[in-house]
Amino acid sequence: MHNKVVYHAMKAFQSCGLPVLRFNFRGTGLSEGQHDHGRGEQDDARAGLDWLERNLGLPILFAGFSFGSYVGLRAVCGDSRVKGAVAMGLPMGVEERGYDYGFLAHCGIPKLFISGTRDQFGPRDQVAAAVRAAHPPAEMVWIEDADHFFVGKLDQVQSAIRNWVRVQFLPEIE
Q: Span 141-160, mean pLDDT?
């Protein structure tokens, strides 16, 4: 929740006039529960969607970073409350964990993928293949020379999010 990538994504959404909910998955930081390898964490994401619907009643855009992008995409694809999703630093393999993105072939919401060309957990060819296999619309933004955490490139992440939100959603939201 306090990760620099997540913080800068929040600022991008706020700059478009959108409210933002940030939360930690179970077992992270001071949150209760234990890490559940992506299963229970999907329930955490859905609980956040429920809270947003109950308290704001607005169209929902999802954004996640790294493990959060994987878990969040799994949770929001197919949920009619979610109108679009941003996945930053899409992981392909971390510490012997592989990630399967086959479900994206059936995820029809607009999707923005942002990755660095030097992402150590998301090799360019593997990320590109997952995005190509995703149901359209699926836009890919490569941040040149950025690593997984977009060190020194977070302004480009913010710009990509702002541009995508403005083109895809602001005429609809305003």
A: 98
Among 66, 73, 46, 64, CA closest to 10: 64
115: left (phi over 0), alpha (psi -120 to 50) or beta: beta
Cα R_g (the chain), whole angstroms = 15
Query: What is the rounded CA–CA span in Å between residue 126 and residue 23?
Result: 28
- Among 11, 17, 110, which Cα is nearest to 62's? 110
CA 36/CA 27 separation, integer angstroms = 9
What end-to-end distance do the CA atoms of the chain give, in Å? 28
List the CATH code of the domain at 4-173: 3.40.50.1820
CA atoms 66, 67, 68, 71: torsion sign? positive
What is the rounded average pLDDT of the residues 155-159? 98
Q: Which band of pLDDT confidence, cut at 50, 70 and 90, is reported for residue 174? A: very low
User: Tokens 């602001």 belong to which residue?
Assistant: 170
pTM of the model: 0.90
